[in-house]
Amino acid sequence: MHLRRFQQCCFVKDVSRIYRNMDIQILVCLFLMYNLRVISLSFTRKILFTTDAFIKEFDVESNNVTILAELSDRSFGMDYDDKNNYIYFTRHFAADIMRFRYPSQNYTFQTICTTGINPGGIAIDNVLGHVYFAHDNTKISRCNLDGSNAVDIHTSLNGPFALGLDVKNGWMYFSENGVPRKMVRSRFDLSQRQDIYTQSFVAYSLDLDYDEQMMYWIIDESNEIKSANFDGTNIKTVMNLNAHGGKYDNIAIRISTSYIFFTEYGKLFRMNKTTATSPTLLYTDTKSINSLYLYEHTGKKRHKFSLERNDIS
Q1: Is the overall model pTM greater than 0.85, yes or no?
Q2: How far is CA 295 from the centre of its chain?
């Protein structure tokens, strides 16, 4: 009898332990489901792009396209100040830099400074609060986020255009579209210049992959997407777009965690960064798409200098 009672007691304890473990597992599952739901709801993934007529927004989740504002110019450079929530962009023919709050219910442009002729790429230093821009066919200059204290960093470059900043490590990357055409890196004051690659055609856009420590750029007319390590080594042709029916006007490129986004005239493509095959057409515009910015909001401030990037993975 005592043995039977002992066995019954052990059985009750085992059953109780099983139910407690099940309760814990159920609670963990519910917690994970709730947090995944919150995360999915908090993500806002958009691609901002400029055409010859408008600044537009492409919603990655719904594929909806929204006109944010009329541009009536051509912009080859766009970047984001995620501390103060401003999009900055250049106007090629008006020769100035403008900004507007994003996201916002009312997209009102503010001119922050004038430039020399043909401004191209633009890049934000969120640490020191500076805007860098290429312009005047020979210059890379800098101003404060409000446009004040504009200074020329260098005045004898050979057609500088595409521009990117590795703020954490203190390197600037840019294209020179004069002959010979080159991809270059240097310190922010243009010291320690290093010519990374010489090419036959121009590059209007580049982007930096801070996670992989790589630079990507797209070469117009030759229809090539290239990559290199931040130190200029390991130069590769990621894809030759001719094999996929590519044509001229390959202008803009942006990199996310998993994808390469690029344009061909009015077409916006997405391609897996690892396999680099079979680009997917996301959207077709009637005008040329000249610049891109990938925006992701998760409710947290994320800055380039912390090696985190606004990404659409």
Answers
A1: no
A2: 7
Contact yes or no for 69/100 (Cβ under 8 A): yes
What's residue 133's pLDDT? 98
User: Which pLDDT score, from 0 to 100, does residue 38 have?
Assistant: 38
What is the structure's pLDDT at 241? 76
CA neighbor of 73 nearest in space, from 285, 308, 273, 288: 288
Q: pLDDT (tens digit, 9 = 90+) per residue, 167-200?
A: 999 999 999 999 999 999 999 999 999 999 999 9
Q: How confident is the model at residue 246 (pLDDT cuts 50, 70, 90)?
A: low
Neighbours of 201 (CB within 10 A): 14
Tell me, letter by letter, the H, E, C secondary structure of 269-283: EEEECCCCCCCEEEE
Helices (H), the chain: 2-42
Instruction: Give 297's strand partners.
Output: 44
Give me the DSSP letters along 1-63.
-HHHHHHHHHHHHHHHHHHHHHHHHHHHHHHHHHHHHHHHHH-EEEEEEEESSEEEEEETTT-
Residue with tokens 């002729």: 117
Tokens of 276: 């680099």
